[in-house]
Design goal:
Layout (H helix, E strand, L loop, with lengths): L1 H8 L9 H7 L3 H6 L7 H22 L5 H11 L2 H10 L10 H5 L6 H19 L1 H15 L4 H7 L1 H13 L4 E8 L6 E8 L2 E7 L2 H18 L5
Antiparallel strand pairs: 1-2, 2-3
Helix pairs in contact: 2-8, 4-5, 4-8, 4-9, 5-10, 6-8, 8-9, 10-11, 11-12
Length: about 230
Amino acid sequence: MPDEIEKLKALLPVPFAADQLLLEALTHRSYAVEHNLDYDNQRLEFLGDAVLEIVLTEHLFRRYPKSAEGELTRMRSALVRESALAVLARRINLGRYLRIGRGEQESGGAERKSTLADLFEAVLGAFYLGAGFDAVRSFLLPLIEAEFPDPRRLLTEINPKGALQEFSQSRWGEQPQYIVTHVSGPEHQPTYEVEVRLHGFVAIGRAAGRRAAETRAAQLLLNHLTRENELK
């Protein structure tokens, strides 16, 4: 583990000497129980969550000077989602450093999004205590820029239909129109084909359920509009 700690410390843009903090951040509760330790990474996760929110709030405030509070809040919520934090953790192979119990390891716990997200926050908490806020920001923002260069696009992934409607209202004052064009498959498990139309643009989504097909169609149309530089 000392070698792993040194590798993890190398990710920081500043010197970091608090090895015990990192060891605590890397210790899953299952490992602590299995080895009768009196610590795990839950407290640091709590701290890291707060530090993460502050860094992201400042980052988004500066990144989008014309965005309203509501949009900034939604972008921040998208970036602190379990799935987004797991992406950041995987980018730096953080899971390889995790100390986790044998049973949890065998059940794939080390690769769970929730475990990786918690681990990422715990490491941020350790970095904050050991190196300060500026070090956390210098470590975190390049990761975010690399994985999520435009956080606004995350909003379309969370709620494509809502994002499309908001865009269409502000751009053209129109509502997207969803039309079921085909239903196939057995009655107990039908597949829907839905067409969405907006200002001359059309996209078709297919899924096992009408709502899912509408969501898929909305996402495809948003993707098309983005490629066509229609979204600003």
